[in-house]
Amino acid sequence: MNNRPAEQFSRDGFVLTKAFYDYETEIRPIQLAIREIIGLVANKHKIDAPLSTPEEAMTRGYPAIIAVDRKLGGEIYDAVKQIPEFIQLVAAPKNISLFKSLRPHAKPGIAAGGYGIRIDNPGEEKFRAPWHQEFPAQLRSLDGIVFWSPLLPVRAETGPVELCPGSHKEGPIPVYSDDEGIGKAGAYALRLDREDELLKKYSRIAPLTMPGDLLNMDFLTLHASGQNASRAPRWSMQWRIFNFADPVGIKLGWRGSFAAGVKFQDVVPELVANRHDKSSGTVN
Fold it and tell me: How many CB atoms are located within 10 Å of the residue 181 CB?
Protein backbone atom coordinates (compact mmCIF):
# COMPACT_ATOMS: atom_id res chain seq x y z
CA MET A 1 0.00 0.00 0.00
CA ASN A 2 1.33 3.45 -0.82
CA ASN A 3 1.50 6.08 1.88
CA ARG A 4 -1.32 8.29 0.60
CA PRO A 5 -4.06 6.69 2.76
CA ALA A 6 -1.77 7.00 5.78
CA GLU A 7 -1.13 10.66 4.99
CA GLN A 8 -4.85 11.36 4.63
CA PHE A 9 -5.63 9.45 7.81
CA SER A 10 -3.05 11.44 9.75
CA ARG A 11 -4.37 14.73 8.34
CA ASP A 12 -8.13 14.13 8.34
CA GLY A 13 -8.65 11.39 10.92
CA PHE A 14 -10.42 9.14 8.44
CA VAL A 15 -10.00 7.37 5.13
CA LEU A 16 -12.59 5.73 2.87
CA THR A 17 -11.52 2.79 0.71
CA LYS A 18 -13.95 1.75 -2.00
CA ALA A 19 -14.39 -2.00 -2.59
CA PHE A 20 -11.85 -2.92 0.09
CA TYR A 21 -13.68 -6.21 0.64
CA ASP A 22 -14.62 -8.65 -2.11
CA TYR A 23 -18.40 -8.68 -2.27
CA GLU A 24 -18.91 -12.30 -3.35
CA THR A 25 -16.41 -13.95 -1.02
CA GLU A 26 -16.39 -11.66 2.03
CA ILE A 27 -19.71 -9.77 2.18
CA ARG A 28 -22.27 -12.07 0.54
CA PRO A 29 -21.68 -14.96 2.97
CA ILE A 30 -22.49 -12.63 5.88
CA GLN A 31 -25.68 -11.42 4.18
CA LEU A 32 -26.76 -15.03 3.53
CA ALA A 33 -26.15 -15.98 7.16
CA ILE A 34 -28.20 -12.97 8.34
CA ARG A 35 -31.06 -14.13 6.13
CA GLU A 36 -30.95 -17.58 7.75
CA ILE A 37 -31.05 -16.13 11.26
CA ILE A 38 -33.97 -13.85 10.41
CA GLY A 39 -35.74 -16.87 8.95
CA LEU A 40 -35.14 -18.95 12.08
CA VAL A 41 -36.57 -16.23 14.31
CA ALA A 42 -39.56 -15.71 12.03
CA ASN A 43 -40.26 -19.46 11.94
CA LYS A 44 -39.92 -19.79 15.74
CA HIS A 45 -42.52 -17.09 16.31
CA LYS A 46 -44.68 -18.02 13.30
CA ILE A 47 -44.27 -14.59 11.70
CA ASP A 48 -44.83 -14.17 7.96
CA ALA A 49 -41.60 -12.41 6.95
CA PRO A 50 -40.38 -11.89 3.35
CA LEU A 51 -37.12 -13.81 2.96
CA SER A 52 -36.62 -14.51 -0.75
CA THR A 53 -33.20 -12.79 -0.79
CA PRO A 54 -30.84 -11.52 1.91
CA GLU A 55 -31.71 -7.97 0.88
CA GLU A 56 -35.42 -8.66 1.27
CA ALA A 57 -34.86 -10.37 4.61
CA MET A 58 -32.92 -7.38 5.95
CA THR A 59 -35.16 -4.64 4.55
CA ARG A 60 -38.60 -6.26 4.79
CA GLY A 61 -38.33 -9.47 6.81
CA TYR A 62 -36.66 -7.91 9.83
CA PRO A 63 -39.17 -4.99 9.98
CA ALA A 64 -42.04 -7.50 9.77
CA ILE A 65 -40.64 -9.30 12.82
CA ILE A 66 -40.11 -6.21 15.00
CA ALA A 67 -43.57 -4.94 14.03
CA VAL A 68 -44.90 -7.97 15.91
CA ASP A 69 -42.47 -7.71 18.84
CA ARG A 70 -39.66 -5.15 19.05
CA LYS A 71 -37.75 -7.33 21.51
CA LEU A 72 -37.17 -9.87 18.76
CA GLY A 73 -35.00 -7.27 17.04
CA GLY A 74 -32.64 -7.49 19.99
CA GLU A 75 -32.56 -11.27 19.62
CA ILE A 76 -31.50 -10.92 15.98
CA TYR A 77 -29.03 -8.14 16.82
CA ASP A 78 -27.27 -10.32 19.37
CA ALA A 79 -27.27 -13.34 17.08
CA VAL A 80 -25.83 -11.84 13.90
CA LYS A 81 -22.65 -10.61 15.61
CA GLN A 82 -21.81 -14.28 16.21
CA ILE A 83 -21.85 -15.29 12.52
CA PRO A 84 -18.56 -17.09 11.79
CA GLU A 85 -18.10 -15.35 8.44
CA PHE A 86 -18.41 -12.00 10.22
CA ILE A 87 -15.88 -12.95 12.90
CA GLN A 88 -13.51 -14.10 10.15
CA LEU A 89 -13.83 -10.72 8.45
CA VAL A 90 -13.17 -8.86 11.71
CA ALA A 91 -9.89 -10.73 12.21
CA ALA A 92 -8.91 -10.85 8.54
CA PRO A 93 -5.17 -10.36 7.93
CA LYS A 94 -5.92 -7.56 5.46
CA ASN A 95 -7.48 -5.54 8.30
CA ILE A 96 -4.41 -5.97 10.47
CA SER A 97 -2.16 -4.99 7.57
CA LEU A 98 -4.26 -1.89 6.94
CA PHE A 99 -4.13 -0.94 10.62
CA LYS A 100 -0.34 -1.25 10.62
CA SER A 101 -0.09 0.88 7.48
CA LEU A 102 -2.20 3.61 9.08
CA ARG A 103 -0.50 3.25 12.45
CA PRO A 104 3.17 2.36 11.82
CA HIS A 105 4.92 0.68 14.77
CA ALA A 106 1.60 -0.06 16.49
CA LYS A 107 0.79 -3.43 18.08
CA PRO A 108 -2.80 -4.19 17.01
CA GLY A 109 -5.46 -5.69 19.25
CA ILE A 110 -9.12 -6.35 18.45
CA ALA A 111 -11.40 -4.75 21.04
CA ALA A 112 -13.45 -7.48 22.72
CA GLY A 113 -17.08 -6.41 22.77
CA GLY A 114 -16.17 -3.74 20.24
CA TYR A 115 -17.42 -5.55 17.17
CA GLY A 116 -20.94 -6.12 15.91
CA ILE A 117 -23.55 -5.55 13.23
CA ARG A 118 -25.72 -2.46 13.68
CA ILE A 119 -29.35 -2.33 12.63
CA ASP A 120 -30.55 1.27 12.56
CA ASN A 121 -34.31 1.41 12.15
CA PRO A 122 -36.09 4.40 10.56
CA GLY A 123 -36.99 7.10 13.07
CA GLU A 124 -35.62 5.17 16.05
CA GLU A 125 -33.69 7.82 17.97
CA LYS A 126 -33.11 5.87 21.18
CA PHE A 127 -30.29 3.84 19.63
CA ARG A 128 -28.88 6.46 17.28
CA ALA A 129 -25.36 7.50 18.25
CA PRO A 130 -25.04 11.29 18.71
CA TRP A 131 -21.83 13.19 17.99
CA HIS A 132 -19.04 11.45 19.83
CA GLN A 133 -15.48 10.20 19.90
CA GLU A 134 -14.91 6.48 20.05
CA PHE A 135 -12.46 6.55 22.95
CA PRO A 136 -14.84 7.13 25.92
CA ALA A 137 -17.25 4.50 24.63
CA GLN A 138 -14.56 1.89 23.89
CA LEU A 139 -11.40 2.80 25.85
CA ARG A 140 -8.75 0.03 25.31
CA SER A 141 -6.24 2.62 24.08
CA LEU A 142 -6.27 6.26 23.09
CA ASP A 143 -4.73 5.22 19.77
CA GLY A 144 -7.32 3.16 17.92
CA ILE A 145 -9.15 2.87 14.62
CA VAL A 146 -12.83 2.22 13.88
CA PHE A 147 -13.57 -0.12 10.97
CA TRP A 148 -17.04 0.57 9.50
CA SER A 149 -18.52 -1.16 6.45
CA PRO A 150 -22.13 -1.28 5.16
CA LEU A 151 -24.06 -4.47 4.46
CA LEU A 152 -26.59 -2.65 2.27
CA PRO A 153 -26.11 0.44 0.07
CA VAL A 154 -26.10 3.61 2.18
CA ARG A 155 -27.93 6.44 0.44
CA ALA A 156 -28.59 9.96 1.66
CA GLU A 157 -32.04 8.97 2.93
CA THR A 158 -30.75 5.97 4.90
CA GLY A 159 -28.47 8.19 6.98
CA PRO A 160 -24.76 7.83 6.23
CA VAL A 161 -22.19 8.25 8.98
CA GLU A 162 -21.42 11.95 9.53
CA LEU A 163 -17.91 12.99 10.50
CA CYS A 164 -15.76 16.06 10.97
CA PRO A 165 -12.44 15.90 9.08
CA GLY A 166 -9.47 16.93 11.19
CA SER A 167 -11.38 16.87 14.46
CA HIS A 168 -9.19 14.11 15.91
CA LYS A 169 -6.57 16.78 16.56
CA GLU A 170 -8.77 18.16 19.37
CA GLY A 171 -7.61 15.31 21.58
CA PRO A 172 -9.98 13.63 24.07
CA ILE A 173 -13.06 15.76 24.75
CA PRO A 174 -14.90 15.66 28.11
CA VAL A 175 -18.38 14.14 28.00
CA TYR A 176 -21.52 13.98 30.14
CA SER A 177 -24.54 11.68 30.18
CA ASP A 178 -27.96 12.73 28.88
CA ASP A 179 -30.77 10.29 28.12
CA GLU A 180 -32.43 13.02 25.97
CA GLY A 181 -35.78 12.14 27.54
CA ILE A 182 -36.06 8.93 25.50
CA GLY A 183 -34.19 6.51 27.70
CA LYS A 184 -30.80 6.54 26.03
CA ALA A 185 -28.23 4.65 28.07
CA GLY A 186 -24.56 3.72 28.04
CA ALA A 187 -22.59 4.96 25.06
CA TYR A 188 -25.77 6.23 23.38
CA ALA A 189 -26.26 8.74 26.20
CA LEU A 190 -22.80 10.31 26.03
CA ARG A 191 -22.76 13.91 24.86
CA LEU A 192 -19.78 16.09 24.09
CA ASP A 193 -19.05 19.02 26.35
CA ARG A 194 -19.82 22.31 24.53
CA GLU A 195 -20.91 20.27 21.53
CA ASP A 196 -22.42 23.10 19.46
CA GLU A 197 -19.39 25.30 19.93
CA LEU A 198 -17.08 22.43 19.02
CA LEU A 199 -18.92 21.37 15.86
CA LYS A 200 -18.88 24.91 14.48
CA LYS A 201 -15.12 24.62 14.12
CA TYR A 202 -15.32 21.87 11.51
CA SER A 203 -16.91 21.01 8.21
CA ARG A 204 -19.01 17.86 8.03
CA ILE A 205 -19.11 15.09 5.47
CA ALA A 206 -21.42 12.06 5.09
CA PRO A 207 -19.92 9.57 2.59
CA LEU A 208 -22.29 7.38 0.58
CA THR A 209 -21.10 3.79 0.57
CA MET A 210 -21.76 0.37 -0.94
CA PRO A 211 -21.23 -3.13 0.49
CA GLY A 212 -17.50 -3.84 0.32
CA ASP A 213 -16.48 -0.25 1.04
CA LEU A 214 -14.55 0.43 4.25
CA LEU A 215 -14.53 3.62 6.30
CA ASN A 216 -11.75 3.94 8.88
CA MET A 217 -11.87 6.60 11.60
CA ASP A 218 -9.46 7.60 14.34
CA PHE A 219 -10.74 6.92 17.87
CA LEU A 220 -10.81 10.70 18.39
CA THR A 221 -12.56 11.75 15.17
CA LEU A 222 -15.94 13.37 15.83
CA HIS A 223 -18.70 11.37 14.17
CA ALA A 224 -22.39 10.51 14.52
CA SER A 225 -24.95 8.09 13.16
CA GLY A 226 -26.99 9.65 10.39
CA GLN A 227 -30.77 9.89 10.68
CA ASN A 228 -32.46 7.08 8.78
CA ALA A 229 -35.33 8.74 6.92
CA SER A 230 -35.98 5.79 4.62
CA ARG A 231 -38.49 2.97 5.08
CA ALA A 232 -35.93 0.24 5.69
CA PRO A 233 -33.27 -0.48 8.34
CA ARG A 234 -29.66 0.50 7.74
CA TRP A 235 -27.37 -2.51 8.22
CA SER A 236 -23.65 -2.02 8.84
CA MET A 237 -20.66 -3.71 10.45
CA GLN A 238 -18.29 -2.13 12.95
CA TRP A 239 -15.25 -3.23 14.87
CA ARG A 240 -12.38 -1.49 16.59
CA ILE A 241 -8.67 -2.21 16.50
CA PHE A 242 -6.53 -0.60 19.20
CA ASN A 243 -2.81 -0.22 19.85
CA PHE A 244 -1.39 -2.34 22.67
CA ALA A 245 1.75 -0.18 22.64
CA ASP A 246 -0.13 3.09 23.26
CA PRO A 247 1.01 4.60 26.61
CA VAL A 248 -2.57 5.44 27.63
CA GLY A 249 -3.68 1.90 26.80
CA ILE A 250 -0.84 0.46 28.86
CA LYS A 251 -1.80 2.71 31.78
CA LEU A 252 -5.44 1.58 31.55
CA GLY A 253 -4.47 -2.07 31.25
CA TRP A 254 -6.38 -2.06 27.93
CA ARG A 255 -9.69 -2.01 29.81
CA GLY A 256 -12.91 -1.70 27.87
CA SER A 257 -15.81 0.64 28.55
CA PHE A 258 -19.59 0.07 28.36
CA ALA A 259 -19.47 -3.13 26.29
CA ALA A 260 -17.11 -4.57 28.91
CA GLY A 261 -19.47 -3.66 31.74
CA VAL A 262 -17.28 -0.73 32.79
CA LYS A 263 -18.30 2.91 33.09
CA PHE A 264 -15.73 5.09 31.39
CA GLN A 265 -15.94 7.62 34.23
CA ASP A 266 -14.55 5.01 36.62
CA VAL A 267 -11.49 4.59 34.39
CA VAL A 268 -10.88 8.10 33.03
CA PRO A 269 -12.66 10.47 35.47
CA GLU A 270 -10.76 13.38 33.95
CA LEU A 271 -13.04 13.11 30.90
CA VAL A 272 -16.23 13.71 32.89
CA ALA A 273 -17.63 17.16 32.14
CA ASN A 274 -19.37 19.15 34.87
CA ARG A 275 -22.66 20.19 33.32
CA HIS A 276 -25.47 22.36 34.65
CA ASP A 277 -28.88 20.83 34.09
CA LYS A 278 -30.82 23.19 31.83
CA SER A 279 -34.03 22.87 33.79
CA SER A 280 -32.84 22.81 37.41
CA GLY A 281 -29.46 24.49 37.33
CA THR A 282 -27.90 21.64 39.30
CA VAL A 283 -24.55 20.14 38.46
CA ASN A 284 -24.48 16.55 37.12
Answer: 6
